[in-house]
Amino acid sequence: LELTECGDDADAIVNLSAGTRIGDTLFVAADEALSVDRLVRDKAGRWTGHRRISLASLLPLADPEGEVDIE
């Protein structure tokens, strides 16, 4: 995995609790985080194109400052 487009990349790898693959796109989430990380598989087979997506921008959260147990 190549996580290069976020300032705090380690959080995307450590403490993963959810993940799914849809075609050449991989979505992973850290336990109790407020975001989902998306990676895209390139032609060489590497997971790159890292993008962190805030759950609060997609869903109404009961406590946008709290943690989400995504699993």
Q: How is the secondary structure organized here?
A:
Layout: H1 10-13, E1 16-22, E2 25-30, E3 35-41, E4 47-54
Antiparallel strand pairs: 1-2, 2-3, 3-4
* Rg value: 12 Å
Poorly predicted parts: none
User: Termini distance?
Assistant: 21 Å
**Helix and strand sequence:** HEEEE
Query: Would you count the extended β strands for me?
Result: 4
Describe, in plain words, how this protein is organized in 3D.
The chain has 71 residues and is mainly β. It is built from one helix and four strands, in the order αββββ. It has one helix spanning 10-13, and strands spanning 16-22, 25-30, 35-41, 47-54. It has a four-stranded antiparallel β-sheet. The longest helix is centred in the N-terminal third of the chain and has 4 residues, at 10-13. The model has no long low-confidence stretch (mean pLDDT 79).
Task: Give a quick precis of the structure.
The chain contains 1 helix and 4 strands; from the N terminus they run αββββ. It is mainly beta and 71 residues long.
